[in-house]
């Protein structure tokens, strides 16, 4: 993540003189100072690792290798992931950012607009080059979109503000009602079809904190209603008024999902069961595992729940853990590996883990 952010900032700094050559802000002394400041922020930590032999140097090589693996040729999977998640991830900033770009299009060479646009383009390029899509790859887009949104707030038209408010009230109120309806169906079993759908998320799930969860959800819902009433009755003139209902609606949806459905979601997607099974197969030894193609989150979860140790750079391991599509499993890596275990999360039918041991 740090590597991708540094690459994005460096690309912006190098392209700024092309976008805005007339402005003193981006002349050569300032550009040189910015590059030096970026290096001063980025270099000390890797350098501190490098001087700590041998563990520090190994960690540095692993860090560089991981960051290099985060940038590749891209994939259709990344495009689909972005199309599904990025509009919600950047709401409500992206409509205002588009409006700001259009509104100030005649001054696109000014540093305030050029810097945000270049940062956004660099972030998008890095996202498209990410082989394995994750939520963290969208994080660098937040800053440029926030900068563009700030440019839109002073000049946004009343009609666009009203449209955003109407969309926010209608969308997030509906989302809140749906979340509550399925939660009530999960607790009471009524209506039956919704209760059946809710129970299919995690069959047999039980919780001893339903009262506390329901109370927290009610507080969040009442706060949302109070925000809608305040925005409609008071009509504040604050510059941030176009963001109030959209941001509050996102917060409502997030809080309801966390306080009501997080335990169910955790029971469904947690890697705890897979990690415990793997630990049972591996035994009490501290043998290393080579995991491919596992992303950083999966490695961290399996290591945490099962106390598993994945290989360091250059280390030879006798265990190989692979992940594939359960519907179209892949063949063993070679004849020197023998399959000893396979498993998956209880409610995930698309992902399968296979453990191999090296033949002597």
Q: What would you call the shape? A: flat
- How much of the residues is beta strand, in percent? 5-15%
Query: Helix amount, in percent?
Result: 55-70%
Any idea what the radius of gyration is? 25 Å
Helix-and-strand structural type: alpha/beta
Count of distinct strands: 5
Q: What order do the strands of the largest sheet run in, or round the barrel if closed?
A: 2-1-3-5-4
| Average pLDDT number | 80
Order of H and E elements: HHHHHHHHHHHHHEHEEEE
Task: State the distance separating the first and last CA atoms.
Answer: 39 Å
The largest sheet, given as strand count, sense and whether it forms a barrel, is:
5 strands, mixed
Q: Helix count?
A: 14
- The residue ranges in which pLDDT falls below 50 over 5 or more consecutive positions are 18-26
Provide the descriptors you would attach to this structure in a database record.
360 residues; five-stranded mixed β-sheet; 14 helices; alpha/beta; single chain; flat
């Amino acid at each position: 993540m740090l590597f991708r952010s540094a690459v994005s900032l460096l690309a912006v700094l190098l392209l700024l003189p092309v976008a805005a050559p007339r402005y003193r802000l981006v002349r050569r002394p300032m550009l040189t100072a910015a590059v030096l400041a970026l290096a001063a922020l980025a270099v000390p930590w890797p350098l501190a690792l490098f001087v700590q032999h041998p563990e520090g140097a190994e960690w540095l090589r692993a860090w560089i290798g991981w960051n290099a693996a985060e940038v590749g040729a891209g994939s259709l999977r990344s495009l689909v992931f972005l199309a599904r998640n990025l509009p919600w991830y950047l709401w409500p900033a992206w409509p205002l950012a588009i409006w700001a770009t259009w509104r100030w299009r005649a001054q696109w060479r000014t540093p305030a607009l050029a810097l945000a646009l270049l940062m956004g383009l660099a972030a998008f390029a890095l996202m498209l080059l990410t082989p394995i899509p994750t939520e963290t790859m969208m994080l660098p887009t937040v800053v440029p979109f926030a900068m563009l949104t700030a440019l839109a707030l002073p000049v946004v038209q009343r009609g666009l503000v009203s449209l955003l408010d109407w969309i926010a009230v209608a969308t997030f109120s509906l989302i809140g009602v749906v979340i509550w309806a399925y939660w009530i169906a999960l607790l009471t079993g009524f209506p039956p079809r919704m209760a059946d759908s809710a129970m299919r998320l995690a069959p047999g799930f039980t919780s001893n904190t339903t009262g506390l969860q329901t109370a927290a959800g009610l507080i969040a819902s009442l706060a949302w209603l109070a925000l809608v009433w305040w925005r409609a009755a008071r009509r504040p003139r604050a510059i941030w008024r176009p963001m109030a209902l959209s941001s509050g609606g996102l917060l409502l949806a997030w809080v309801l999902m966390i306080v009501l459905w997080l335990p169910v979601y955790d029971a469904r997607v947690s890697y705890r069961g897979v990690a415990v099974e793997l630990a049972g197969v591996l035994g009490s030894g501290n043998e290393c595992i080579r995991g491919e193609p596992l992303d950083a989150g999966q490695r961290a979860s399996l290591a945490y729940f099962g106390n598993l140790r994945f290989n360091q750079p250059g280390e030879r391991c006798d265990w190989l853990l692979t992940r594939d599509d359960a519907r179209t499993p892949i063949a063993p890596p070679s004849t020197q590996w023998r399959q000893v275990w396979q498993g998956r999360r209880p409610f995930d039918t698309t992902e399968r883990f296979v453990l191999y041991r090296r033949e002597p």
